[in-house]
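Issue 218. Parser rejects a valid record. Input:
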Amino acid sequence: DIATAIKFCKVASATSRRVGVVTNSGGEGEYFADKAEQAGIPLSLFPDSLRAAIMDEFPNFIHVGNPVDCWAIDDDRVVFPRVFQMLAESGEFDVLISAIDHSYWLRGTERSLATGIADDLRKAVEGTDIFPAVIGVTTCDPPVEDLEWARRHDIPMLKGSLPGLRAIAARLNH
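Output the parser choked on:
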């Protein structure tokens, strides 16, 4: 929509195509990685040192990929904010994306999980030059409250993995 396009215009261009993604589902993460390649911004594995640091802090990780699937690793109010913080502080990324379902069908704790993870992203990139984006993994509209949150914090909230990634790729190519 026009508000999202304006938001993209207001954000300074990222200096490269180094993209880090956090998700709460391994299946969605694999799909998201496939769509990132299709959109022209293939996701690279995190550097060995960053993967090792994440696994040291959260021993339940068997594998740390990109996207990194933080689901059921630790309490979500611990693992998601910390992993976003580690990614932001690593100096390895110009773009960080939260790839989480933000649909009207989410209720109760699922809703609070999605909004909490988006806010974890916001806090992690605050005061940095990292470009944040929230991409809902479905093509349905996010709830109005999520859109209001995105507008308040000047963070693009895009719907659909491939359309959202194409928008990010277009911005990176601008």
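Fixed in the parser; the record now loads. The CA atoms of residues 22 and 47 lie 15 Å apart.
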